[in-house]
Amino acid sequence: METYRMITGWLLVINIIAFVLFGIDKHKAIVHAWRIPERVLMASAAMGGALGALLGMKVFHHKTKHTKFTVGVPVLLVLWIIVLMRIRGLL
Fold first, then answer.
1. How far apart are CA 42 and CA 49, in angstroms?
2. Could you report the per-residue pLDDT of 59-81, keeping only the tens digit for each?
3. What CA–CA distances, in Å, run from 17 to 31, 56, 85, 86?
């Protein structure tokens, strides 16, 4: 149970970070400033922040025309759901 709590805490933090990264990058795109590299945005999703990244994409209307994100982020979200279900013994 302690492991699951630690993972849940991690996922909460990384999802907030991913959401904020997408918002910052969108703002920087609008003002033509230095951008957050796409690999950083995808890495935040891959490390467990896929839900936050997906919400950031929707809320900020950011990276919604890039197949890498429109397909990759939902796939990562499904993979993380499967991992969590396996950890909980539901699969």
1. 9
2. 999 999 999 999 999 999 999 99
3. 21, 10, 23, 25
